[in-house]
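Q: Give me the 3D complex with N~2~-(3-carboxypropanoyl)-L-arginine.
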Amino acid sequence: MKSYEVNFDGLVGPTHNYGGLSYGNVASQSNSQQSSNPKEAALQGLAKMKALMEMGFQQGVLAPQERPDVAALRNLGFSGTDAQVIEQAAKQAMPLLVASCSASSMWVANAATVSPSADTADGRVHFTAANLNCKYHRSIEHPTTSRVLGAMFADQKHFAHHAALPAVAQFGDEGAANHTRFCREYGEAGVEFFVFGRSAFDTRYPAPQKYPARQTLEASQAVARLHGLSDDGVVYAQQNPSVIDQGVFHNDVIAVGNGEALFYHEDAFEGTEQMLAELTTKLTKCGGNFKAICVPRSKVSVEDAVRSYLFNSQLLSRADGSMLLIVPQECQNNERVWQYLQELTSSGGLIREVKVFDLKQSMQNGGGPACLRLRVALNETELAAVNPGVIMTPPLYGTLTQWVDKHYRDRMTETDLADPQLLLECRTALDELTQILKLGAVYPFQIN
Ligand code: SUG
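A: Here is the predicted complex, encoded as structure tokens.
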């Protein structure tokens, strides 16, 4: 049976803004308080989806969330009408209003961890929504994420959904941003690669000194158990704590995998040799041939990797067996990174082509091409069971760009977030969106 890697991209929400909310994420911190352009952000994301669809890849779309999240503000003690809740929060606790307005759900690599049916004990595709417990503004995403994923992958014969892990730092889980899968073919059993930043219970693992390590080993292990993965089909590796301290807040800022290949920076991991040996052995058992593509620090420093987001690229398989790298424009703007990419693609290796996308609006909050997509490997039968409303087609692209043009503002600052009109605009837009994507009622304002 044919199988595919389907990329579901997060649609940027109407409140996209630069709130400076993510300590440890260099871009989020350095662009704090700048004015943003939600319309441009959404159109940049849609342009990437369209381009991939036109290149022949399976492409889907994942809906944004209801923001401002009035229910979250009510949980923090603000009361009255929705407009009063926003007004009080703006007066008394602006950082909380900003957090409740973040469009951070666009980075759907953090929505969930997904295991394809070929790897799981019950032969279904398993999803665990990420608790995103490290940052308040992200920790409020998972209830709606679960409802949206449930509406997209509704058929219980093929899809199993798990609630987010316990909402404590010991089970900090950032979803697919710290998870990669290696396989010969997407439909065959593969090796799931879980990368964690620290251990919550085992003090033998080193931890970063400056910035938080968001993902714990214990969270990754819990996800593997929930998904029914076999020991032979799983490899755990630790991120090098010193790169976390240099701004590598997720593993997908320093490594990306696809098919049989791992493209990574020399300094990305602890215990690299042992990790590569385990990946090689386990993938061989699955009939695959593991290929490591290491970028040496002498060619690209960690700082250049963080600035350019070289590794936050999408590594895609082409029909001839070679691979294509989808990178953000910031890679082209960085001389050393661009030089490295020229060498890489002309060396006759696996990665033969680079395509550049302008995703500046998302990049300024630390979200590159790979952050914007959730990969779901599906066979033909499973793909047919996905809600067809969320699969990108030329007409859907047209409808969504019109929808963005109609509803989105082209400028957003902190002051705009306090405008009660913004809430109404967003709800009107999202209500229409659930009809376009045929999701049913998924937002708090639609179900309460
Ligand atoms: O969690 N930025 C996100 C970026 C997530 C990127 N995802 C992956 N690497 N997969 C984060 O730090 C910034 C929001 C703000 O500051 O307004 C933010 O949440």
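A quick observation: The mean pLDDT is 98.
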